[in-house]
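Hey L., structure's done. Input below.
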Amino acid sequence: MDARAMAQFIDRFSAAEMVVLRRQTAVSPQTWTDVPVKARVRQYGAAELVAGIAQGDYEVIVAHQTLETAGFPVPPRDGDRVVIGPTIIDGAYVPGSGSILTVRHPGDRGGNIGYWMQVRGGAAR
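Output:
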């Protein structure tokens, strides 16, 4: 599967949902790069809670091409944020909405095809 096929797969996947990827770009004043994108989101199951995966962690799969097209500075990195269930108005993220999770492992796969990110935080779905 190439990068374009991966983006199309996630776009058409019935369980795909809108998330927002965030990266802090300045500390004072605090500013963020926010991009709403379609991603595949799932919570890890009980059998997967090994080697650094904790109860409440999520896997977020997003295509490289999708992030690049949206203007997110690829690749994602540890410390970036993923907002699950965000409010998006006129294509822009409304800060403070949704469940904000922190990227622990960006999970680059296949040379810029996509990212299987492990994210952690106070999400409740």
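The two ends are 31 Å apart (CA to CA). The CA atoms of residues 76 and 106 lie 6 Å apart.

-- N.
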